[in-house]
Amino acid sequence: MGFEVSRRLGVADTVTLVNAVVGFVAGAVAFADLHLAARLLLLSVITDALDGIVARGSESSAVGPLLDSITDVVSFGATPSLFVYVLLVERFGTVTETGPAMGVAITLVASAYVVFSIVRTAFYETYIETADGRPGMPNSLGAIVLSTAYLGGIHHPIVLAGVMLVFSVAMIAPFDYPKPGPKHVTPVGVVLALAVLAPDALYQFGPRAVLVVALLFFLAGPRYYWAD
Hints:
Elements: H1 5-8, H2 11-29, H3 34-57, H4 64-92, H5 95-98, H6 100-127, E1 133-135, H7 139-151, H8 157-170, E2 176-178, H9 182-197, H10 201-224
Antiparallel strand pairs: 1-2
Helix pairs in contact: 2-3, 2-4, 3-4, 3-7, 3-9, 4-6, 4-7, 4-8, 6-8, 7-8, 7-10, 9-10
C-alpha cells in the first residue's frame, strides 16, 4: 500500500502546507531582509488561522493534526530562531568575526526557541488530549510578539533575544493557555492583516496594537481569558 497522498490529504491540509512554505520563506528571507521576514511570519500566523477555519468547515483528515503540529514547529519554531540568529549575527558578527566561543553562544541562544518548541509539540502530541486548555505558551504567540515588536520599531538584538529566551521557557511552563475564541480572533486577524500589508501605516498602528494584545494574552491569558 502506498501513501495515497491525494486521497488522504484534505483541503485544510493543503492550507497547512502553504503555512509551512510561507514560514520557510520567512526564515530564508530573514538573512536578507528582517522587515519583510517579520511580515511573512505574521502572514504565516494568518495562514495558520485559516487552516483552523477550513478544518472546522470540512472533514479533517487523520493526518491533519500531526501535520499541523509539524508545520507549527517549522513556521513558529525554526523561523523565529533564525530571525533571532540573524539579529545577533548582525550585532556581533559571524563566527569567523567573533571567534568560536561567541559563535557557539549566539547559536545556542538563537536555537533555544525551536528546541523548546519541539519539546512542547512532542509532549503535547503524546500526553495532552484536550484542545481547550493547553499547557505552556503556544509557539505562535512568541512568533507574533517577535515579528510585531520588530515591525513596531523594537530592533535591539539583546532585548529581542532575551524576550525569546523567556518565551522559550514559557512554552513548557505549567500554565494552561486557552485557545482564543472566534469573536476575538476575527478583530485581531484584521489588525494582523494591516500589520502585514501596511506595517508603517498610522505610526505602525497594526504591529503595535497586535503586540500589546499578544503581551496581554501572554501575561493574563492563563488566569483571566475565557474563549466563550
